[in-house]
Amino acid sequence: MIFLSHILTKNTPTYGNRSKFEIGKNSDIVKGDIANDSTMTSTVHIGTHIDMPYHFYEDGQTIEYFDNSFWIFNTPLVIDLKPKELIIKDELVQRLNAIKDIGYDILIVKTGICNIRDKDEFWSHNYGFHPDIYDTLIENFPKVRVLGFDSISVSSFENRMLGREAHKRFLNPKKPILLLEDMNLKDISENTSFEKVIVAPLRISKTDGLPCTVMGFIND
């Protein structure tokens, strides 16, 4: 089993560099208290996290809607890309059109941008996904429930208007494909054979996004 998610730290990058993950203490053994008691302050859209339909739709689903089996993926599809443009579209659609669907339930796209996650370019010049990819998945891979990737957002920071449309298309409450953003894909490739992938979001009521732990179980 390997982790496909990042650990949250005070250095975790965020979209637009707008927010930070902060850890504080209500009590501290070093200062003479009996126990350490930590607090955290954060946006829910940080680190490896899932976007819920409620992110862009007032009537969109939140964590309460999805049962436990939703988060277990037994037929993952992994695709490696070296994107030529910041907005990923044709090259991914071409790859998908060449693949026969065998009931894939999660699509994981590795762009390689996770290798520069410690640089400002990771959030300021990130890859985004074109809204039309949603249509390709709905038509050709109807069992896909989640699109996961190593970019910080489905929205490229340099084309936020198109990014908003991508969010709305994928998170359509009538037929959502949830977005699993900022995955840790350094140690896998499309040749990695997964037995299953488990996505474990924090179960926080009525929120538009949730930090996740993601585990991939690799076939021997």
Verbal overview:
- The protein is an alpha/beta fold and 220 residues long.
- It has a single domain, classed as Putative cyclase (Glucose Oxidase, domain 1, 3-Layer(bba) Sandwich), CATH 3.50.30.
- Strands 1, 4, 5, 6, 8, 10, 11, 12 and 13 form a 9-stranded mixed sheet that branches.
- Strand 10, helix 4 and strand 11 form a beta-alpha-beta unit.
- Helix 1 packs parallel to helix 3.
- It is globular.
- The mean pLDDT is 96.
Please outline what is shown here.
This protein is an alpha/beta fold and 220 residues long. It contains four helices and 13 strands.
CATH class: Alpha Beta
End-to-end gap = 11 Å
Biggest sheet, in brief? 9 strands, mixed
Classification by helices and strands: alpha/beta
The H/E string reads EEEEEEEHEHEHEHEEE
Number of DSSP-assigned strands = 13
- Helix fraction, binned, reads 10-25%
Q: Please tell me the CATH architecture by its name.
A: 3-Layer(bba) Sandwich
Give me the CATH fold name: Glucose Oxidase, domain 1
CATH 4th-level superfamily: Putative cyclase
Give the overall silhouette. globular
Average pLDDT, all residues: 96
Q: What count of domains describes the coordinates?
A: 1
Using only CA atoms, what is the Rg? 18 Å
Q: What low-confidence regions span 5 or more consecutive residues with pLDDT below 50?
A: none
Strand content: 25-35%
Number of DSSP helices? 4
